[in-house]
Amino acid sequence: MVGAFQGAGVVVTGAGGGIGAALARRFAAEGARVVVNDLDAGRAKGVADEIDGIALPGDASAIVAEARDALDGTVDVYCANAGVAFEGGTAGGPLDETAWAASWDVNVMAHVRAAHALLPAWLERGSGRFVSTVSAAGLLTMIGAAPYAVTKHGALAFAEWLSLTYRHRGVKVHAVCPQGVRTDMLAATGSAGDLVLQSTAIEPEAVADALLQGIEEDRFLILPHPEVAAYHQARAGDPDRWLSGMNRIQQQWEESR
């Protein structure tokens, strides 16, 4: 797809490292003008300097207007990639409402706010592309991390709603759902991530490759780990059997701690 995004205005949130940085590099290689957003200003500038992009540090929820100005008035592709992950649940320990609130805000509401700001212009001109970095947790779940699992389901649901509502008006939506990816976030998942994700973890660049292939094939659901499709089918086909299997993994994790 070399040159497929030549001159396009692309925004990638959470692009100071990991999947976001890989997406920014890949879109730049395709000829795009890329806005690199991250809470860490130094990391945003580092990636932007590397790809001759535009660093835009700050809260991913509130950058659309500034990004549009930086791209001469047009955002063609918006990658809602920034995310947070917290361990914990709702029982057997204190309820961390701060973790839940932050998870909802970053993993779901940042997508909602961005879409709200982007859609008027996209609908007026009849084109626009929204990329949501979800996670296989949005299709399945994640042991030991209730806020992450629940809000990633929410992110997927919102991406689905955007697609079914606006696809006939030229808005393309893609939900990227990898399992383990070798990033700082995977390292932060601790023993649960080691048990469930580490053995099949891929590099961030593989996620970027999968996205570009999915865009070329005009697919909504993009699975950098193809086996996730079978897991998703098993979950839908026999939920009790799937939950029993996941509970066995939960018990294995508890025994290993």
TrEMBL record:
Keywords: Oxidoreductase
UniProt keyword Oxidoreductase present: yes
InterPro entries: NAD(P)-bd_dom_sf (IPR036291), Sc_DH/Rdtase_CS (IPR020904), SDR_fam (IPR002347)
Keyword Transmembrane applies: no
Classification via Pfam families: adh_short
Any one GO molecular function term: oxidoreductase activity
Protein family according to the UniProt entry: Belongs to the short-chain dehydrogenases/reductases (SDR) family.
PANTHER family: 5-KETO-D-GLUCONATE 5-REDUCTASE, ALCOHOL DEHYDROGENASE, PUTATIVE (AFU_ORTHOLOGUE AFUA_3G03445)-RELATED
Protein name: Dehydrogenase
